[in-house]
Amino acid sequence: MHAIPFEIPPPKNEADFERMCAHVYGVVFDYRMPKMNGRRGQVQGGVDVFVKEAGVGRVGIQCKKYTMKPVKWDDVVDEVGKADKHGTPIKKLILATTAPNDAALLKKVQELSDAREAKGLFPVEVEFWEDICNHIDRFPVLQDSYAPNSPGAAYHRQDAALSNLQTLVLEQRDTLLGMSALPTARLDSVDRLISDQLDRTNELLKAGRYRDALDHLAVVGKDLGPFDAHQKARWYLQKGLSLWFMRLDDGEAAHLFLKAFELYPNDERMAAAQVRGSCLRRSCLRLVLRERRRSSGSLIPSKSGSRWPTPASFKASRFGCPTCLRR
User: Fold this and answer.
1) In angstroms, what is the C-alpha Rg of the chain?
2) What is the structure's pLDDT at 167?
3) 148 touches 141 (CB < 8 A)
4) The whole model's pTM is what?
């Protein structure tokens, strides 16, 4: 992509510059959780922001907003001394500043860094405003925030829009595939009225009226006693599809798909429902297990030696799917 030069104004105050550094260096180092180091007035040990660099470890960033005056050598020595004195746990220190480039200072910082590394201490870098702007210039996502009228920002917005469109297309594809799974009535069903009511549900689903389909199924299915096995299987499959299309409860949808196959296995649409239900159930369990490991880790070993969430911890998880585990 052809780059067109653009000018980025420095932040108006130190707090804004610190937030900007957290954002910029989080993108530069591909670290999604940059941390602000305490608040103003607290001892910060020479670091305002923490990020992590792959292959290096934790990087500390000291933010210096100097618009009209240059950064001095004493500033660098002072901040490095603070980090050393407080034992700040970092593998590298970056002094980021809004001040203009200074070749003499850069050379002294590089010499200091080399000497520190030779002693097994963390290295030091200085990044001037032009360096920070170069980072922004390299990442369209940063241009979108700090230079919204630049070509890169426009590209980022277009790329995001295309990504959203692709997601929508895939969702519609899933819906169409689901429509092909809608079961039709059997000619040998005894009660044609029930079949007609289930056919009406099919029409509601095809029209995208999933909530109406659920309401209709609730009325039709108040008493499943008169239904034959195939009609019951249709009812369960239609309800499962309604929940699945609405993204309401994949765990319950999985149970309904499997129930439909259990009731009438000798039907290719019910067999397809079994496959879909099994896939959804595995997806739900993987999601729950991943969330429980990430949070409290309150897992208990099963008889087979694998680890599963306890019922109490499972229900407490906001990402949990109690329906899926209950089955």
Assistant:
1) 30
2) 62
3) no
4) 0.50
Domains and CATH numbers, the chain: 14-157 (3.40.1350.10), 192-326 (1.25.40.10)
Cα(92)–Cα(45) distance, rounded to whole angstroms? 13
Residue 106: both structure tokens together: 């850069």
**Coil vs helix vs strand at 179:** helix
Please, where are the H alpha helices in the chain? Answer: 14-28, 73-85, 103-118, 129-138, 140-146, 151-179, 192-206, 210-220, 229-246, 250-263, 268-294, 311-316, 322-326
Q: Which is it for strands 35-36 and 299-301: parallel, antiparallel or unpaired?
A: unpaired
Report the pLDDT value the prediction gives residue 239, as an integer from 0 to 100. Answer: 93
d(CA 14, CA 19): 9
**Residue 302: predicted pLDDT:** 43
Residues of the chain with pLDDT under 50: 1-2, 297-327
Cα(212)–Cα(219) distance, rounded to whole angstroms? 11
- Cα–Cα distance for residue pair 139/80, rounded to 1 Å: 29
Cβ atoms 30, 184 nearer than 8 A: no
